[in-house]
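Q: Hi! First time doing this. I have a protein sequence and I read that you can turn it into a structure. Is that right? Here it is:
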Amino acid sequence: SSLEGGCAERPEAPPLRQMAADGMMLLASDPERASYRRVEVGQAETSASAKIARRVGIVLTATVAAGLLVAAVGLRVAVIQRPEREEQTMQPRASLALEAKSEVHSCQMQENVILPGNDLEQRIGVTSASNCCTLCQRHEKCLAWSWATTSAERDAHICFLKGAAPRPLTRVPAYGWVSGETMQTEKEGAPLQTRIAGTGQSLYCYALMQPTGYEQGLISMQYQERVSIFECDEYAVYSNLRIELAPGVFTGVVNSTLLCPMGGEFGTALNTGIFLAVWAKVVKDGRFLFHDWTVKVDPDAVFLPGRLRQQVLDHPEEERGVYLNNCKFGLHGPIEVFSRNAVTAWALNAGKCVEHFTTLCSGTCGWGEDMFIDQCLQRVAGVRRDDEFRLQIEAHCDPPLGWEECGDQVAVSFHPFKTEEGWLSCYRKTQKKHHARGAGGDDAPSTEVVHMQRRLAR
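A: Yes, that's right. Below is the predicted 3D structure, encoded as structure tokens:
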């Protein structure tokens, strides 16, 4: 089947569209029933019956909005609690001078810091940071680790062992975590590179991947090449199955068939229900709270995080949140960029948006997820919408002639490139352009230099 916009095409239009719309309205106002229905859907998905599977694809459209609302209830608590520990979370101590007893090396540790990504494996039931450090020292490829105290709740007493790939680790403030490095210079990939994200530039990037088709190959290649979302300060890949993309790198599982019809007002993938399920998982995981920006990227978009870090400096956060409109025709789905407060507003208003637009359209509106979230944030949640047309050059957004050569020197992404060869060719051309200007790869000028240039320009 053809794949587009985060769903596998289902040829028939759903005959129960009005029932789905009614279900959205009902479930969005009844979280307890939503939770019960989501259990039913999960059980149905495991059935071998194709008929049930098709029905689940329809029912999910009616239930995942409520699923996001349930996740938002948990988020509301987190948001209320967060200011009480904001100072602790955002200002980690430089060094605790803690030492792990080891036969080889001592560990330098930092409290209230996590090192996301580059996971080699996870060890459950580790009772102290010192023990986590020792496990890392004894692992042939481990150079750093993060360990969760009981304050980290769901991840309590889990030790995450980390290597050098796919990119330098970012030290991210996170209450209830302790992280460190082994300082073992003889190991592969040593010395480990770490960084601290510039103010207002920390990126949490995720992609939704179909379990079959070309997308898995693209994502695995991007991981091996250490590019795209894997250059962000933290990354995640979601699918409806647990899939190993590389040794120790697995997809997060979303409660969805990832099936949707094509059609609606613009003849696009009607994938709103799917992405409501994905966002429910993103919100439940809660990692976006530790970063300034959350970025959703399609696997076939050539994405350059270094360029995005410079562009977001032009879009300061505010209390109501901000998101970036990437096309003169309205928000397009290949890359979507939301501030931390915008994601919070989206989570807390998604159920209200489902009800509002179902009433307005006298049923489902026949929109893709990009148009739905654009309308929701702008017209219901009241989030600030900034035009940022440098975000993408895209086939469906009136691109310039020759755009496939990827020669634009400021565009954050180019879409679509559905083969590994085509994707890599485009990416390498963007790097040649940077080298020709003496920029040295995808790394843009430092934050300090950019701020100085803007002060002078004023």
